[in-house]
H4MPT-linked C1 transfer pathway protein (Methylophaga aminisulfidivorans), 347 residues
Amino acid sequence: MTDSNSTLFCGWDIGGAHIKLAIADKDATLLDVKQVPCALWKGIEQLELSLDEILASLTGKSFVHFVTMTGELVDAFADREAGVNAIIDCVESRFKQPIHYFAGNGQYLNADMAKRQWTDVASMNWQASASFAAKQIQQGLFVDIGSTTCDIIAINNHQTLSSGNTDYARQRSGELVYTGAIRTPLMQIAEEAPLHGERIPLSAEWFACSADVWLLLNKITAESIQDHSPDGKPWDKTHSTMRLARMLACDIRDASEQQWLNVAMFFAEKQLQRITQACYQVLSRHNDWAPNSPLIGAGFGRFIIEQCAQRLGRPYVDLSSLFNENEEAAAHAPCAALAILAAEELS
């Protein structure tokens, strides 16, 4: 696609809450990985602003852009096709260099083709990262937990195996679980929680989210969270505990610090159970797999996957080890994988 040794390959992952960008050189070496907030559900102008912010830093080089997306599902759009079209139009209006849309299975489409084949473009980011892992893993379960969702993809003989490509089909098969390490409302994780020896039904409100749980359990830091908290207050242990208490129609003073930590551990356990059960569901299609086939953990919440691997009795491989120990690449796997795959295949 390009003969220039100075051309850089940009992998973009446009989601409903963030934009992720990775840049690789012609040797498929990652030079940069970054994420910026993008509240796309508020309208397409949010994507315009976030893209302008990132593009302002891409100067002085020749770039080729490769785009994948999941943001078409947000309720700012009438349907997913309208979302794909709006995202493509926004990207095309701002990028001045070649743009290619990832359609899975190593296919890259121009804007017109991507609109016509929108079902091949919508929510296909998981295939980029799973395909990257499959090039280096002979057999295993690729699991990517981000801020909002969890992808679970079987790999066998260096090939990805999925029961479907749409979110609808993948949710039915257990390959897509709508739970993440940051944005998941706690009322989606459980219906009740234990306190003072009783099981308390939860408030049906977005008072607290999974980030509050993992922050209290020291698995994530306030600095690593780019999203707003449910109440708009800071990400710290005091405010996270206040939000957690509100889910049980309580105040922070109604229980001890250790009791609130116990509640947080309960929610962590429930989320871990849900992901582990989905892993069992996907693994149930592959009964002849070797017992030492690993779980490959990607995404911001991959610390959860390591715990799943322990429960499944399988080895754990952190995706960062396949990215030359690049932690940011492992946290934002689809854009990093897309940049590397494009550089390897097309430079």
The two ends are 6 Å apart (CA to CA). The mean pLDDT is 95. Residues 208 and 243 are 5 Å apart (CA to CA).
